[in-house]
Structure formats: structure tokens, C-alpha cells
TrEMBL record:
One of its GO terms (biological process) is glutaminyl-tRNAGln biosynthesis via transamidation. Heterotrimer of A, B and C subunits. This is Aspartyl/glutamyl-tRNA(Asn/Gln) amidotransferase subunit C. It comes from the Bacteria. Gene3D superfamilies: Glu-tRNAGln amidotransferase C subunit, N-terminal domain. The lineage of its organism: Bacteria, Pseudomonadati, Bacteroidota, Cytophagia, Cytophagales. The gene is gatC. One of its GO terms (cellular component) is glutamyl-tRNA(Gln) amidotransferase complex. Keywords: ATP-binding, Ligase, Nucleotide-binding, Protein biosynthesis, Transferase. It holds the Pfam family GatC.
Length: 95
């Protein structure tokens, strides 16, 4: 499969890209190289290859997510620059 200059222009329009003539030619050559490479990959016999679902053999290595309070309410307010009883005071954002 080969791409022509009209296809490049249509793709550029859809992607909201602008190319000058030299860049159009570079894109044309690059996309044709990519498509040639994909054609070479299609020639490989992959019938005995298992499909990949993950790129590595590792299973979830993350810790269990357990919710807990690390600091108390009072400790959280202790370093607040401004506080009002049990709440943080912040600058007004909306009129």
C-alpha cells in the first residue's frame, strides 16, 4: 500500500496540521516507509505465537489500598496559616 500526496493533505487537514511542500514530501516518504515495514511484518508466520495480554509476566505488584487516617483533624489544622474553629480559611475565589 502506498500513500499519495492527496492522502497526506487529507490527513493533515483532518489532524489540523499544516505542512509546506518539503514537509509534505518528508511525511509522504516516512508514511510509506512505515507501511512497507508493516507489510514485512505481515509476511511473518505468527500462527504458533500466543497473543499477548500484558507486556511483562509480572502480576499486580502494588500494595493493597487500605483507607486510614494518617493524621487527626487537629494535627491537620495545626499547620494551617488561617483556621476558623474546625475549618481551613482560604481566600475567596468566587464573588
Amino acid at each position: 500500500m502506498n500513500i499519495d500526496i492527496q492522502t497526506i493533505r487529507k490527513l493533515a487537514h483532518l489532524a489540523r496540521l499544516e505542512f509546506d511542500e518539503t514537509k509534505e514530501q518528508e511525511m509522504l516518504q516516512d508514511l510509506n516507509k512505515i507501511l512497507d515495514w508493516m507489510d514485512k511484518l505481515r509476511e511473518l508466520d505468527t500462527s504458533a505465537v500466543e497473543p499477548l495480554t500484558h507486556m511483562s509476566e509480572e502480576v499486580n505488584v502494588l500494595r493493597e489500598d487500605v483507607a486510614f487516617n494518617a493524621i487527626s483533624h487537629e494535627e491537620g489544622l495545626r499547620n494551617a496559616p488561617k483556621k476558623d474553629s474546625d475549618y481551613f480559611r482560604v481566600p475567596k475565589v468566587l464573588d
